[in-house]
Task: inverse folding
């Protein structure tokens, strides 16, 4: 039995009280669903600036009414200290997903990025300290590696941030370290790489590449690739991310605490390779996809060239073992994509 299966059984036997911020978002709703399936009591905080009610509706339909009744939604903003304190009341563990994502959006509006990602997270850390929450697991990002030239990104290496978004996530890590040193707040930061899966929004100017391309291919719209297509990313399926969050939230290994971990697959896929994978799958459902070609355009400001995670630290200290590759992840999510986006 894997460590993840062990902690799932432990949680069913000894449930905890959880707060999930950004609960109506793509990752937040995935975490909520898993926690409710495991019989946990969950508070969810979201201001619905990017989160969606339909994500919560989908969770409700999936888990059923009895489990859904273990969930309490708080409509509020982490930029408000009183909201954070109220949400943290009587909570054991926080899974902090709320953020204003997207590198391009941060380049266009660095102040909003800072307000949400830095001030909001500081408010939450402070509330967790004051309300005596035992642990906070927070989402950081592979963007913190910036211009680090190492092909394999290791938590001990660093580079110069290339966007306000990257700066905001690095500051979160610094605050987490300070709060652990000064106030004893246990924390673990998870540097997400390129997460994908069901409920990921394909709409808007800042949509992630996989749902954006699936939507465009299915509707016979143009598909744009920034640069030559040799930019590569470590695409990680949502089930792997849920696993590492719960491992971090429940670990009893003291050496594992107050650290950051790469949350990824340790595989590199170029944009050209990704396009071929999606084209192959969608070509079985839409004839117009078979001969469709992408349109190449300029590189995007703030983007890094290559992103691949070294996940040995998470394996060794947390027991993290990814269950899905990019191919099995795409296969698992394809039914949802076809039903909800095409």
Result:
């Amino acid at each position: 039995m894997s460590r993840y299966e062990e902690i799932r059984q432990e949680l069913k036997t000894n449930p905890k009280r959880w707060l999930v911020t950004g609960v109506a978002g793509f990752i937040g709703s995935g975490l909520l669903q898993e926690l409710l399936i495991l019989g946990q009591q969950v508070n969810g905080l979201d201001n619905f600036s990017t989160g969606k009610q339909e994500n919560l509706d989908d969770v409700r339909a999936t888990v059923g009414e009895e489990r859904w009744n273990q969930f309490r939604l708080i409509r509020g903003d982490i930029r408000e200290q009183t909201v954070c304190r109220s949400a943290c009341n009587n909570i054991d563990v926080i899974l902090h997903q709320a953020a204003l994502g997207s590198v391009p959006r941060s380049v266009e509006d660095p102040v909003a990025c800072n307000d949400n990602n830095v001030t909001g997270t500081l408010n939450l850390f402070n509330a967790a300290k004051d309300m005596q929450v035992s642990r906070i697991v927070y989402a950081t990002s592979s963007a913190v590696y910036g211009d680090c030239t190492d092909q394999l990104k290791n938590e001990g290496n660093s580079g110069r941030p290339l966007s306000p978004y990257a700066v905001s996530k690095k500051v979160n890590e610094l605050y987490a370290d300070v709060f652990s040193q000064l106030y004893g707040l246990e924390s673990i930061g998870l540097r997400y790489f390129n997460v994908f899966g069901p409920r990921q929004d394909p709409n808007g100017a800042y949509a992630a590449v996989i749902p954006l391309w699936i939507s465009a291919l299915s509707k016979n719209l143009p598909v744009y690739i920034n640069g030559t297509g040799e930019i590569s990313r470590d695409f990680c399926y949502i089930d792997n991310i849920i696993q590492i969050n719960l491992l971090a939230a429940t670990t009893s290994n003291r050496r594992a605490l107050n650290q950051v971990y790469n949350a990824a697959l340790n595989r590199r896929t170029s944009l050209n390779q990704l396009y071929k994978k999606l084209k192959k799958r969608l070509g079985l459902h839409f004839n117009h996809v078979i001969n469709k070609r992408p349109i190449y355009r300029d590189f995007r400001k703030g983007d890094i060239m290559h992103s691949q995670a070294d996940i040995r630290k998470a394996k060794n200290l947390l027991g993290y073992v990814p269950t899905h590759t990019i191919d099995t992840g795409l296969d698992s999510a394809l039914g949802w994509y076809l039903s909800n986006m095409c």
Observations:
- The chain has a mean pLDDT of 94.
- The first strand starts at residue 17 and ends at 21.
- Residues 112 and 290 are 41 Å apart (CA to CA).
- The longest helix spans residues 110-130.
